Every structure is written in C-alpha cells, then in structure tokens.
Queue: 3 jobs
Job 1
Amino acid sequence: MTKTEHEKTNQYNTRNCQNTRNLKNWTLSWVISMAIAAFAPKFLWDYNTIFTAIAVVINLGIGFGMLMSNRRYLRGLDEMQQKIMFDAMGLTLGVGLVVGLSYELLEDIKLITFQPEIAHLVVIMCLTYLGGIVAGNRKFQ
Amino acid sequence: MKNRLKVLRAERDWTQAQLASALDVSRQTINAIEKGKFDPSLPLAFKTARLFEMAIEDIFQDED
C-alpha cells in the first residue's frame, strides 16, 4: 500500500470529522434556540404568545435535526466506536432511571427540602455518558 | 480470539493507520484487534481476509 493509496482510502477519518462537525453545528444551534425559547419571551417580546410558540416550534425542529445528525454520526462510526457509545448510552439510561426516581423520592419522603430539578438529572446523565465513553476507550486501549 | 494481524501487517510494512484506512475503521480499532481486546464482526473479518488474500481462519483463531 503506497502513501497515495493510503491517503485516497483514508475515508473513515474524513467522514467522521464531517459528521462530528455537523453534529457540533446542530447541537450549537439547538442550544441557542433553547436559550431563545427560554429567555426571549421575558426579555424580548413580553410573553407574546405567537412569538413564543414560534420559538418553541423552531427549537423542537432544530432538536429533531440534532437527533438525526446524532444518528448519522453514530452510524458513521466503526463497530468498536459504536460499541463504546452504545455501552455508555446503556449506562446513562440505567443511571438516569435509578438516580432520577431516587432523587424524586427524596423530596416525597422529606429527606430534602428543595424541589428536585430536571437540570440536576441532565447533569448527572451527561457526566455518566462522558465517564462511560472514557471508560470504554480505556478498556479497548 | 487470537489473530495474526500485527504480523501480517508488519510483513507488508503497513502502519496501523494504513490498515485502518484500507478497512474503513479507526486506528484505535486496529490497535484493539491486534491486542486481542476487541473481536471484529464477521463482515470486518471477511474484509480483512480479502485484503490480505487469505482465509479467515488463517488470520483469526479461536483460543480454545
């Protein structure tokens, strides 16, 4: 295999970079649209129902685009990278379910005085997913 | 599962990156297969066999 042949056939990295860049753009757009839907009604258009509804619909549309981009990203990975991702997702789902329900229970049985926030669960799930990916990569190193 | 990927690659003077490109996988995956930490799927094993122009069982062997 010559160097030229190698460069010509090096499609995996190129495809992976394109899919990652695409996912990054969709995620960034989704975060911005989420911020607009969350804060603009109060600070920009004084809770105008039509503008707020449009912002929410746009946020949902971009969210769907992000999901499709994530799907394309996962399908573009090779089989080992996919296994690492799917293992991390399985772990995240399990931790999210167990921790989420226990967290909710804490308030019901008066062990905590504050209202459980969904954002706390999202942070736990993000950290679990990140930890799962790192652990998976170390396992196959 | 044992395999002779590292030896076969070295015989052809290919790098892990070159082999990864030829098989359309990441370099990390080639490294993991060579170290026996990851067993490839049947399609990837067939693709590897075709690349080396060998039978699958001449590259991958069951450890039992």
Job 2
Amino acid sequence: MALYRDHGVVLRTSKLGETDRIITFLTRENGKVRAVAKGVRRPGSKFGARLEPTSNVALQLYRGRNLDIVTQAETLDTNRSLREDYALLTHAISMLEAVDQVAQERESDPVMYRMLEGALRTLSSEKSLIISVAFLWKLLSHEGFHPVLTSCARCELEFGDAVEPTTFDFGEGGALCSSCAAGGGRRISADAIVVISALVDARVRAVIDQPPSTEVLLEVEHLGVGALEHHSERRLRSAALY
Amino acid sequence: MQTLIDELGRLPGIGPKSAQRIAYYLLKSPAEDANRLAGSITEAKARVTWCQRCFSIAEGELCAYCQDDRRDSTSLCVVEEPRDIVAIERTHEFNGRYHVLQGAISPIEGIGPEQLRVKELLRRVESEEVKEVILATNPNIEGEATAMYLGRLLTPLGIKVTRLASGLPVGGDLEYADEVTLGRAFEGRREVEA
C-alpha cells in the first residue's frame, strides 16, 4: 500500500513551483521524510498553517519514488507561542536545523522524534532558552557523542583538586586537563562543566529552576553548537541569528 | 542548441525536459517571435533597476509609486518582494508608500536582517514623515520572524506599527480552517455594526 500514516514535526520547508512546497518532516516511524504539499501556498489551501516549521502533525502520505506527497495533515501541536517571540523562534529553528542535519532519511528513530516534539512543547510553554541548549547536548549524546566531563578525554585522569579541566576538545569529545590541553580546544569553565553535566544527565528542570549566569549559558550554548558542527561537518546557520 | 537548452534549464522551475521542450518550441516558432522575446529580455535587463528609495523594481532612479505625489507619505507598507506590491495594489485599499525588504529573515537559510533592506527602512522612517508602518510580510514562519524583528526595532521610535490581519479566507469553509488561522480569526474578530 503506497499510502501510510505517521506523526511528524515539520523541520523545514522550501518553495516548489507556483503554489507547492517541499516539507521536511522528522516522523515517529519513518525517520526524516521529504514530501510535497500541493497548493499549500494558496490562501485557501486545505493545509493552511499546519505545515509550518515547529508544528507537530498527524500525517497521511503517499509514498513516492523520490518525494512523498502529503495527502492529509491534522494538527497535534502548533507550538504557537514559538511563532510569537523572536528569540524563542530562532532557538526553535536551530533545534530543527540540528535535527535536519543528523537525522537520516527513512531511518526510523522514535526516540529522536519524542525528544524533538517534547523539547518544542517545553520551549513553547516554559519560554526558557535553556531548553534549546539542553536539546543540542542531548541530541549529541543520542547520536553517540556523549561528552566526557568527569575525566580528561585524552589521558583519562579523573578530574579533582590535582587535575582540573581547562579546555573542551570536539575531536576528543570532552574536557581536557591542563597538560593535554596544549593540543588545542576551546576554554571551558568549571561552571559550564556543571551545567553540561546536568543537561545531558536529564536534570534540565534543576538548571531551569536555578539558571546559570548569561555568560555560562552562552559558553554552554557555543560549545554545544561547536560540537554539533564538528560532528555533522556542517554549519548550524540559524545559530548565527540568536 | 545545447547552449539554449542549458540556459533555459537554469531558469527557476524549469527542468532539463521542459528546457528541451521550450527550446524546440522556440526553434519552430517564427523568427520575429523569438527576436521579440530576446529583445524584451535584453531591454528589461538594461532598463529595469532597483528603486533608490523603496527597492522595488523601477525604470529610473525612483519607481512609479515613489514618484506619485498623490500617494500618502505618512503610511509605509513593508513587503518582502516587489510582486507583493502588485497583490496589494489589486485590492485598491492602500494608497501609501512601500518599502521592499528583498527577502525575509530565514534562520534555517542563514538569512539575517543584515542581508535585507532593514537599515534603509529605519533611515526612511527617521527621515520621512512616516506615521504608520504596516508590516505586510508573508504569514509564514519567515515572514512572522521578520515582522517580529522589525516590530522590536520600530516600536521604540514612537510610530504606529501594525501587522496585516490573519484569518479565514473569504469564500472558504470554517470546518476546514486550521487551528492557527481560526485562532487568529477569533483574536481579530470585529464587532458587527448595526
């Protein structure tokens, strides 16, 4: 049967012809899917605003050779407040872009779908930018790049009073001690290590309740963006617009 | 022949097959038709430029809307592309001036405010007698992001900043309206006049 149903978050859209769009979804069962939404740019389109980035929708699609075709879409969550705040929107878009970079077409990844739809919902309700930073780090962990933060990622010496973390090396995948840091990496503060550890260990609520200073949050965010760009070998373009 | 097909294939929305079909059609059509097409492309390219004030298309320094003294200089409608002006003009509802941003903020494409005509808009608002700026960017995510960004910049200048209304399309059915559109239609409802 060429028709199938799934749930999906709209990652991005691009114009096609006069009135159509190609919509990229992260679906629950079918991984990343690219599909044509016919006539979606017309004011009277049956899809309306359902197929805009950040929307979570129940879909019926027709499987095509190259691109699928969206035949029906029903809103599960519009995450409307994300569209009404510039800072929230740019952070939400960077989450979508990050997923678009790492998700594989037609490779089912229900965990990633749940992570993204949950993060968008929480960002929309909590309106805390910590959510998007946490999402980047959790996405990296999910992709197999869980950061090494309790010991030196190169010499494996446990951090403590005698050995302190000084830099974060994207290639090594974690913090380096002062003797190993000569090889490079970005400077990392002790506070940033505490925050990243909390974010990847599912203690996001604690970080939201006791938020770090703006400098530390920016440091954690820049490191997260840098790590993602290093592993995906692509620039996260939306991060430049924060 | 292959050069013609390749050149036509570079146009937006035209694939190799369509390019081939158009190329054969042009070769079969009378020479004067092909010359007229070639001449109009060359002439348009040579004569049409960007308006120095609103950045719409113009055949001189200023476009027809900027040259027209009968238009209301106190209201300024901000659009993404010159073709949006054509759509607004068809309504006969607006008699002010325009400003074309030449795009919209698109975080995922890496298009930021500095790639748009935002600085020029701010200069116009400060130097001209503008009392109201109407943000007429598209009601999609890029257009909304652009409108929010411009709203943050323009509101502190003490002028009236408005956004085009969103709601039900005239002639459409309520039951097929999506939640965002219907929600906005409720928000923007008007009192019925007796």
Job 3
Amino acid sequence: MNNRPYKTDMPVLLTVKPMSGDKFNFKLKLWHVFPVLLFVLFYSTFGFADAGPAKSSVFETLVRWMPLLLKGFLFNLLISVLAMGVGTAVGATLGLGQISQSAWVRKFAWFVTQFFRNSPWLVLLFFAMFLLPFEVEIVGVKIPLPDWLKATIGLSLPVMANVSEIVRGAVKSLPSGQWEAAESLAYTRTQTLWLIILPQCVKRMLPPWMNLYSILTMATVLASIVGVSEVMTLTGQVLSSEGGRPELLAPFYSFVLLLFFAYCYPIARFTVHLEKRFAVIS
Amino acid sequence: MTWDKTQPMVSIKNVHKAFGDLKVLKGVSLDVMKGQVICIIGPSGSGKSTLIRCVNALNDIQEGSILVEGQEVNDPNLDKLELRKKVGMVFQQYNLFPHKTAIENVMMAPIRVLKQDKATAEATARKLIKKVRLEGKENAYPGELSGGQQQRVAIARSLAMNPDVILFDEVTAALDPETVGEVLRTIQDLAEEGMTCILVTHEMAFAREVADHIYFTDRGVIVEHGAPDTFFNNAQDERTKLFLSQIL
C-alpha cells in the first residue's frame, strides 16, 4: 500500500490506472499488408509438402498464377479508371444541370440522378450488358462493344449519379454571399459558376470523389458475374483448372483481397488527410 | 429615357417588397442626387438592407419604381448586368473570393466583365489597393487579412468597376471595433471625392459626419428624414426619438 499515491482505508476508492491506450491505438500502415500476405502464403505451404509429386504446394501454385492474377487486377483498375472518367464527365454535367436556371433541365437532371443513385449497381450492370448492342455504328464505322466495355459503361452509371450529387452538394454548400458578390460585380451566371463557384468547390468535392472511386474499384469485381475476364473471373478459372483443390480457395481469395486492400487503403488514408487539411483552411 | 445630372441619380418611389407574407417595405420613397451621400438608419428588421439590395436588383420588388440614372429597375426586361456595372455594392460579410488574392479580387471583374486588358486592370487595381491603404497586401489571400483589411479590399473591388453609385450594406457591422475606423475612413475619402454613396449603417457618429441626408426607417417605412444636424438635434417623430435615445 505504501507505494500508492495516497492512502485510504477503503481501497475501492482508489483510482484505477487506465491501461496504456497506446497499444490499442493501432493505425494501419501500407507495409502491414506484407506480413499478412507472407503469413498467408507461408501458412498455406504447411502440410502439403508430402502431398505427393503430382500436386505442387499451395505456395508454388499461387506464385505460378500470380502474373495472370495481377494482369486481371490491372484490368479491374483499367475498368475503374475508365468508369470513373466517364462517370465524372457525365455526372458533373448532370450536377450542373441540377442547379440550372431552367426548371425543366433541373427536374430532368434531378430525376436521372435519383434514378441511378437509388438503383443497385449490379442491376445497372446487367442492364448495360443486355441492353447495349455488341457493336455500334457511327457514321458508317462499326465500333465493337466488347463485354468489358459494356461493364465499364454499366458501372459508370451509378458513378455518374453520385458525382452529380457531389457537384450539386458542393455548389449548394458555398455561402450565398459568393453568388451575391459576383452578381453585384455584373458577372454573368456562367462566369460566376466557372470563375467563382466551381474553383472553390473542387476542394470540397475531392474527398467524396476519391471515396467514390475506391468504392467503384471494389465494385469492379461485379463484372465477373457478367463474364468479364477480371481478377475474380480469372481466380475462379485458375482454381477450377487446378482441379478445384479446396486448400487453394483461402490463399487465392486472400491474395485477391490483399490486392484490393493494398490499392484502396492508401486512397482512403489520403482522403482522410485531405479532409483534415481542407477543414483547417476553410 | 434620358437622364441628366440635375435629376436624381437614384430615385426610389413608393417601393413595396414582401418575402412571402412578410411585408418588408411598405411604400418607401427617396432620392439621391449625384455626389450625395445618404445614410439609412433604423432598428434591425426595418427593411433598410432589403431596400438597398433592391437598387442593384439583388432583390426584386413587387410594386413601385426604382430609377437608376433614369433606367427603371422594376422591369422584367431589365439588363441587370448593365445596371450592376453602374451600381457597386459592399457587403457586411465582405464576400471576397477566398481562392483569389487581394489584387486578383480587385482586377478580375474589370478583366472579365469590362473586358479591360490585364495590364490596365492590374495598374488600376494597384492604385486602388494603395488608395484603401493596403499597399504590400496585394498578394495576400482574404483568409490572411483582418476583417477591416478584407472590407477595404472589397471596397477597392467595387471601385475597380468604376461605378456611379456604391451601396454599403452595414459594412462595419461584422468588424472588430478597432478595425471599424479604418473602413469608415476609406468611405469618408470616397465621399469627399464626390462618389455617390448609399449607406446602411449603425455608426451614428459617422453618419452624422459624412452624410448629406439621413433617412430613418422603421417597419418598412421611412419615418423621418433630414439633414444630419436637424435630424439628430431636432427629431420630431416619437419613434425616431426613442431610437436615437437608445443608440446615442
């Protein structure tokens, strides 16, 4: 009792020293992925060393297929970048439509936005796959529309709707004094929007936009359901070509998970960083 | 319609304005001659800010007439941009563009709206920033300036459009007491140079010193008006007397 800071006859009243909080404030860093990855790979080699000459170890199998899976993953990234690009371009236009002075344009943009924002991504993907033709003819030139391109268009629809809302929200979040000041300086509405309002919105739009991108990237695996040869489809094919060995399932899908995590987590961290920075400035 | 300098530059006649059911202006009339400085005072919610916001068509009116240099503002075919080139405005919250530096704030409208070339606009902007005593702050962003400094940039920004009349909407109401003086001094400079000014203000001492004519508004009407000395020393209406006794 002597080493306590103060003495009392009633030990229940002694203050409890809290356990060090440091141990529990674990912050994920990118490099943490690699120990986990190594553990999964290493663990997966146990118990199969004496599985017979016909079967290679899980680790060897995974390494052998890794280049193909990585290529598949790059394809996911390509789809995500294209869908984001298309979705952002059309969505930004739609978002500006939502703040148009013409009531008809506003209503139309609002309807399109709400429709695509409140539809399941997978359903939109199926719509795109089955409603789009396999080729389009533009001024006599036939342009083929392969499945992956249709999937990209399908995924860009919800992105478009979400970007539209991001743009509308950012514009609405600016104080009305900015509009009034610009108006009283005789700027036209277009000038006000492009010179005063939108430049200030970019900062506000960036974090939610990046958030949306990382959600989209993770959603690209939906394309496997409609048969696009992206990383999930390839993983399934690899597994079946390896004879459907059940011990391969966990390592292979873990690998795919880790690929996405390694790509999306830094984006999420960076988004948080941006949000903090902009919060201080504005 | 032609306008000459013997006629009022701004002529407000029997203006009515309501926001929904709330009647804010109930028949206000006043005239401002070229070079005149008028101050509109009155309790909060008496419609004084609304009144000057009608002059540059930020708010529309339901009834009555506002002529600016002979041009009717209460007209659906009004060219608002032409009107606003003639009528400058300074706001209570400054409303500077935070993503632009002080000098860019000042020179942007002359370049984009008046189509001046960049060198001319920049030279004018530098002169104006000097005029509002902010030399050396040209490249500061609004966030780096004090309230009084921002408000002076806002005045320079308004002056850059070379307006014929400037509306000041409670421009010192959001300022720290120690920076109010520098803004008032800037406005006084303008008044002495002959700029036509319409001020909504709570600064009675300033109004008394700078104004040619004082208007007292309450509940959407002008209760009393007159030259500063008469108005402050010899108010007739009970409401005016009460207001002045509370504020002085």
